[in-house]
Write a structure and sequence with these properties.
Keywords: Signal. The protein is built from six helices and no strands. It is mainly α. The chain has two domains: about 35 residues; about 100 residues, no CATH class. The longest helix has 22 residues.
């Protein structure tokens, strides 16, 4: 059910964004020009999200913990996805450093809401994503 809610929200946001796009200000245009393509294609992102969603389901989080978990993950993943925006002018090394800092902050927040087993599971799951990003950006461990 949650997948359908996320897809519905995504479609709604896409339609809303398209209607708002017709009334762009100069600042909006500058921000759009500064945006850089993401590391993954839409299909790759969908596959990663589906895989991660299934792994998180395996953690059997209580509903309130799941809500907190999703909120924290989404907050940090969004910020991570914006690290290569042109308006930030980050070097490849700075992107790597900031990415690692965000992962550390995210993990610290998550550790406080998860059991030890759940946290270990999270580290394994997100570690796969982190390694994938490292491969895409050719980061060294």
């Amino acid at each position: 059910m949650k997948v359908y809610q996320i897809l519905y929200l995504g479609c709604f946001l896409l339609v809303a964004n398209m209607s708002i796009a017709q009334n762009k200000t100069e600042k909006d245009i500058e921000l759009q020009e500064a945006k850089v393509d993401t590391v993954y294609t839409v299909e790759e992102r969908a596959n990663i999200q589906r895989w991660f969603y299934e792994r998180v389901n395996d953690m059997q989080l209580k509903p309130d913990v799941r809500d907190d978990y999703d909120r924290i993950i989404n907050k940090y993943v969004f910020d991570m996805s914006r690290l290569n925006d042109a308006d930030k002018n980050y070097t490849r090394e700075e992107i790597h450093d900031k990415f690692d800092e965000m992962v550390d902050k995210m993990n610290t927040e998550l550790k406080s809401i998860l059991t030890t087993d759940q946290y270990v599971n999270h580290l394994e799951n997100f570690g796969e994503i982190q390694r994938s990003v490292y491969r895409r950006w050719n980061f060294k461990n």
